[in-house]
Specification:
Blueprint lengths: L2 H6 L25 H15 L3 E4 L25 H18 L4 E6 L2 H9 L2 H8 L1 H25 L3 E6 L11 H6 L1 H14 L4 E4 L19 E4 L2 E2 L2 E2 L2 H8 L3 E5 L4 H4 L2 H13 L5 E5 L9 H13 L3
Parallel strand pairs: 1-2, 2-3, 3-4, 4-5, 8-9
Antiparallel strand pairs: 6-7
Helix pairs in contact: 2-3, 3-6, 4-6, 5-6, 6-8, 11-12
Length: 311
């Protein structure tokens, strides 16, 4: 079974024997765009032996210092293809170079996350102050991201690693702010990629805060779900999350845990422990992006252990 088949087999009814694996890192700024990004992604993919190519998204929304109040969000620029062109060059190159051997997916940040980039995080405060005015920024960001999504689809990507934030436990005292002003724009983008792509990952991102409830995401599209297994004071299992969402689970390792700091033997033992209790449809990964200074040999060890494991 080649790498592409191994990943797509997650969506088949047949029982897995080969466990695919993939871990993701941000590369140095001089490898963010164009051919330099293509070369670095391919170097990392081939060195570690991972089973899919996930293209890191690095074209963050520029900070807009004039956005200081909820009413200011109407000033957020609507970005067109030209803004995303450096990132699209990397997408085009990696689809051409790697798609015959691996599934190629693109990181997609949510509109809420991009408004956070544009305002230094003020979007959270503004949604609490005047959500009807602040949602204009999320709406504009979603339209900009839809331009990026459609261009990536034209280039032939297999799917997206679609991230969501905003429903973390400490984020809003009133969780309906997420339901009313963030989730609809998540779904606007995710439903588009779900209509046209064969392999999308729903990533419930805990980069800033943790979660105490995953049920708001049960109706999100995505062929595979990726999230941290820690839920409030409870530690869920990968099998529980897979059953909860009714789809394969991708994850199992703490991004800041043994894979980042452990010895070769410790990494092998932890991966084997995870695989022993994994659900029937499972891809080994971390709960989010690994630290940028992680030793690539640690990642290779984890992936080699998954590939050698037999159920």
């Amino acid at each position: 079974m080649n790498k592409r088949d191994a990943v797509l087999s997650l969506l088949d009814d047949d029982r897995q024997s080969y466990i695919p694996a993939g871990f993701f890192i941000h590369f140095y700024p001089d490898c963010h765009f164009g051919q330099a990004a293509v070369n670095k992604h391919l170097e990392y993919f081939r060195y570690t032996g991972m089973d899919l190519v996930k293209i890191q998204y690095e074209r963050n929304f520029p900070h807009q210092p004039e956005i200081q109040t909820p009413a200011d969000w109407e000033k957020l620029p609507l970005y067109q293809k030209e803004f995303f062109q450096p990132q699209l060059e990397a997408v085009a190159g990696l689809v051409k170079a790697a798609q015959k051997e691996a599934v190629v997916i693109v990181t997609l940040y949510s509109a809420f996350m991009c408004t956070g980039q544009a305002s230094g995080g003020l979007i959270t405060e503004h949604l609490q102050q005047d959500p009807e005015k602040a949602k204009k920024g999320i709406e504009i960001a979603a339209e900009s991201l839809m331009v990026f999504v459609k261009e990536c689809i034209k280039l032939g990507v297999d799917g997206f690693y679609a991230s969501t934030q905003g429903r973390e436990a400490p984020r809003f005292a009133d969780p309906t702010l997420f339901d009313t002003y963030i989730k609809p724009y998540d779904l606007y983008l995710m439903e588009e990629i779900n209509r046209t792509c064969i392999f999308n990952v729903l990533h419930i991102c805990d980069y800033h805060y943790g979660y105490n409830d995953l049920t708001p995401f049960l109706d999100y599209p995505g062929h595979v779900v990726n999230c941290n297994l820690k839920l409030a004071s409870k530690e869920m299992t990968a099998r529980e999350v897979a059953e909860m969402f009714g789809r394969p689970y991708m994850g199992g390792l703490d991004r800041k845990g043994i894979i980042a700091t452990g010895s070769r033997d410790e990494i092998k033992q932890e991966v084997e422990r995870v695989l022993c209790i994994a659900p029937d449809k499972f891809m080994l990964a971390a709960d989010c992006t690994l630290p940028g200074d992680v030793n690539w040999d640690n990642i290779k060890t984890a992936i080699d252990t998954a590939h050698a494991y037999r159920r």
